[in-house]
Each structure stands twice: as structure tokens, then as C-alpha cells.
């Protein structure tokens, strides 16, 4: 059942959703800090110790060889491989449209200035291991980097109990353009990517999901390297009109609720009758799913519903919440799209379930959570580029505009800046 709240409590709902983020405890921060310092000091030797301690594997070497990669891929289901190939192409097509070009402005007296768009030189992608395996996340992280022009894409992932890489992860890395793969996980993997070891060369940016220890490590190494984001629990907000199918709505709310007991599923609708049907469908559908207990906990603690008079009112509430996933499950959703100001990704129409975006559609599933869609964006090509400006002045130009530069520098009490312009103006050569 979804707890119904008053439509006038929009800000309270937004604060409630944003407040689900778990604070990283001081014990975790201390432990992760010690791991990072150990890896900085002892490099591969420290990584081996932690791999033995946390993964139960005596890892002599970390890098996955081509032979090992091919052997793993041979175990993949052919239908899975075909689906991944189609998904990868969709992701490539979408992200290629994001590529930017630099520009140059030509002005008077030989002045020109411009901007270059440059790919990062190296990127590290963290891929969780353990019981869960997310090959789709490999595609979503590696393909935009590859499209951006990153030459060195490094993947780290914990080994299984036999010291091997999961076949599906191996296949995803192969088709996504990953350059190097290392069997190492946890905070030690983040430290290795940030500071380098004898086996693993450091990178410029680290992306990808992980547990609380990985999140803490990413937070701590930020500044030495860039990171994508510190993601919170997942969330979905469905805006549904009276013609929406309650079975579809319930299924889509459950698709996020099954992630985590702290995941949030919100229905904002113009129909009280639909809400009642959705609540019945939630109970019926969740009862037969493997993650029933997680779904029920999520819906009980973080499942909310709001009934509004109009779709416009529904969208106002959504904009305040700034959901990670927003479904416009109403007639002519494109009519309302421009009203949506804050959402990680928007899924339009009765048949566009959020699962399409998670796996296959081409849009990226690495999205801002906990209200951060108010100011941040989905992972994409922009995350893997940097912009560098350039400027050229001639002797004639510095003589023409030097006085203005000197005046501004003096006002800021920076005489050296003023002198750098003056000395060029006074040079008669």
C-alpha cells in the first residue's frame, strides 16, 4: 500500500525523499581512510591483503588476461549476448548525439580566442561483484567514455570465490570498449585507481556504483581524481491519469522498490479510483516476486501517493521532488514534457516502463538521486570531457586595450598584473 499524503505537503515530501541518504558512519570513514593510506604506501601488497581479507581470494595478479576474458565470455548465454549488442548500439547512438565541438572567435587586430573540447585521458569504472552482477552498468559507464574519446578505460571488479570475473561482466566490458580489467574491489580498488600501484596505473576520474565503503572511498579521493556522484537509494515517481493501466503503474513502482528497502516509489495521479486499483495490484504483484520482503519494506516505509486535480499540479509536485526516474503515464505526454524541470530521466507514455531505460533504450541509467536532479545530470559524454580555452593578442591589440587591463589590475591591488601589460605596451621593438 502507498501512504497517501496531502498535495499541499509537497516540500515535506521532497525533504522526506532527499533525507533517505544514509550518512557514512565515522567507523566506516576511519576504516576506509586506513585502507586508502595503506594502498598509497604499500600498493599491490596492500591490495592483495585486502582481497584475501574481504573476498577470500589469494590474488597473485590482478589484471584479467585476454585468454581469461575469452574463457569467461564463452560461458555467456547467446541470447544475453544478442540483447547486450543491441542495447550497446542504442546507447552508442544516444551518446554520440551528445558530443560537443570547440569553437573559435576571430576579432579585430589579430585577436582570436576559443575553446577546445578534450577527452579525459583515463577513466576508472567500478563494477560491483558479490551475488549481484550488473553488466548493464558496464555499458552505461564505459560507452559514454568511449564515445567521448577516452583512450584508456579501466574496469575494476571484485573476483568471485574462485578468483575469476563474472562472464556477463566480461562480455559487457568487451563490447563497451574497456581497455584494462582488474579483479579487485572495495575501497582498495578505489585507492588503487586514484593513487596507482605497481600493477594498476592511476586514472583521472572514477565512476560507477558500489557499497558504502566504495562510496566513502570515492568521496575521500575526490580532488586527487574526479568522481561521477555519490548516489543514494533509487526512486521513481509516476504521474498517471485516469486512463493509465493500474497493473502497469504497480509494476513500474515495484521495479524500483525491489532495489532496496530504502528505495522510494511515488504515485501522483488525478484519479482516486486509479490509486485504489494500483494499491490492490501492488499487493497482488509483489506477493509472487522473489524480492517480496524488500518490496514490501520499501513500499511500507517510502511508498507515497498524492491525488491532484490536474496533470499540471502533478508535475509541480514532481518538480519539487526532482525524482531520479519520472514516468509521464498519461495521454500525449509530449504536451507536458516542457513543464518538467527537475528529473534525472523522463519515460513518456503508457508503454515506456523505466526498465527500458535501465537496460536497452539508450538513455543512461546512471542518474542523480535524492533531489539532486535539481542541479545535476545523468552520466553522459560530458562527464568524460574537459574544456580548455585559448586566447591570442597581437602587439597592436595590447597597445589598444592595455590601459583597460592596467586600470582593472590596479583596482585589485595587483601591480604585477598591471606591469605585465604595461611592459608590452612600452616595448618599442
Structure description:
Zn(2+) binds at residues 256, 259, 358, 417. The protein is of the alpha/beta class and 429 residues long. The protein folds into 3 domains: 3-21 and 232-361, Nitrogenase molybdenum iron protein domain (Rossmann fold, 3-Layer(aba) Sandwich); 26-227, Rossmann fold (3-Layer(aba) Sandwich); 393-426, no CATH class. It is 46% helix and 16% strand. It has a 6-stranded parallel β-sheet with strand order 1-11-10-9-12-13, with helices on both faces. A 5-stranded parallel β-sheet has the order 6-5-4-7-8, sandwiched between helices.
Report a brief summary of the structure.
By secondary structure, the chain is an alpha/beta fold.
By CATH, the topology of the largest domain is Rossmann fold
Largest sheet: 6 strands, parallel
- Strand adjacency order, main sheet: 1-11-10-9-12-13
Unreliable spans are none
Q: Name the CATH homologous superfamily of the largest domain.
A: Nitrogenase molybdenum iron protein domain
Amino acid at each position: 500500500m502507498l501512504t497517501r499524503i496531502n498535495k499541499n505537503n509537497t516540500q515535506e515530501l521532497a525533504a522526506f525523499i532527499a533525507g533517505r541518504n544514509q550518512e557514512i558512519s565515522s567507523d566506516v570513514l576511519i576504516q576506509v581512510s586506513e585502507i586508502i593510506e595503506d594502498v598509497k604506501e604499500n600498493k599491490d601488497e596492500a591490495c592483495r591483503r585486502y582481497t584475501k581479507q574481504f573476498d577470500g581470494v589469494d590474488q597473485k595478479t590482478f589484471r584479467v588476461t585476454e585468454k581469461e576474458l575469452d574463457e569467461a565470455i564463452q560461458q555467456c548465454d547467446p541470447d544475453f549476448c544478442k540483447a547486450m549488442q543491441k542495447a550497446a548500439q542504442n546507447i552508442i547512438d544516444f551518446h554520440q548525439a551528445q558530443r560537443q565541438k570547440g569553437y573559435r572567435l576571430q576579432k579585430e587586430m589579430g585577436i582570436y580566442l576559443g575553446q577546445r573540447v578534450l577527452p579525459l585521458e583515463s577513466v576508472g569504472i567500478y563494477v560491483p561483484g558479490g551475488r549481484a552482477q550488473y553488466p548493464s552498468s558496464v555499458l552505461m559507464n564505459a560507452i559514454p567514455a568511449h564515445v567521448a574519446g577516452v583512450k584508456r578505460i579501466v574496469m575494476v571488479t571484485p573476483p568471485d570465490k574462485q578468483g575469476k570475473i563474472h562472464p556477463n561482466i566480461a562480455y559487457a566490458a568487451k563490447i563497451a570498449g574497456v581497455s584494462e580489467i582488474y579483479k579487485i574491489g572495495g575501497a582498495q580498488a578505489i585507492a588503487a585507481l586514484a593513487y596507482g600501484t605497481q600493477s594498476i596505473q592511476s586514472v583521472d576520474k572514477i565512476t560507477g556504483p558500489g557499497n558504502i565503503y566504495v562510496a566513502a572511498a570515492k568521496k575521500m579521493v575526490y580532488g586527487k581524481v574526479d568522481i561521477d556522484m555519490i548516489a543514494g537509494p533509487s526512486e521513481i515517481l509516476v504521474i498517471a491519469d485516469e486512463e493509465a493501466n493500474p497493473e502497469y503503474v504497480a509494476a513500474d513502482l515495484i521495479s524500483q522498490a525491489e532495489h532496496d528497502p530504502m528505495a522510494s516509489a511515488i504515485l501522483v495521479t488525478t484519479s482516486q479510483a486509479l490509486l485504489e486499483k494500483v494499491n490492490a495490484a501492488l499487493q497482488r504483484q509483489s506477493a509472487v516476486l522473489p524480492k517480496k520482503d524488500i518490496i514490501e519494506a520499501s513500499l511500507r516505509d517510502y511508498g507515497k501517493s498524492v491525488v491532484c486535480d490536474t496533470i499540471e499540479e502533478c508535475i509541480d509536485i514532481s518538480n519539487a521532488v526532482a525524482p531520479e526516474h519520472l514516468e509521464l503515464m498519461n495521454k500525449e505526454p509530449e504536451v507536458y514534457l516542457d513543464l518538467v524541470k527537475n528529473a534525472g530521466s523522463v519515460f513518456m507514455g503508457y508503454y515506456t516502463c523505466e526498465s527500458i531505460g535501465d537496460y536497452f533504450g539508450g538513455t543512461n541509467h546512471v542518474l542523480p538521486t535524492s533531489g539532486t536532479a535539481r542541479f545535476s545530470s545523468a552520466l553522459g559524454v560530458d562527464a568524460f570531457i574537459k574544456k580548455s580555452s585559448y586566447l591570442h593578442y597581437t602587439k597592436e591589440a595590447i597597445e589598444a586595450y592595455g590601459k583597460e587591463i592596467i586600470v582593472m589590475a590596479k583596482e585589485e591591488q595587483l601591480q604585477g598584473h598591471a606591469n605585465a601589460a604595461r611592459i608590452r605596451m612600452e616595448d618599442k621593438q
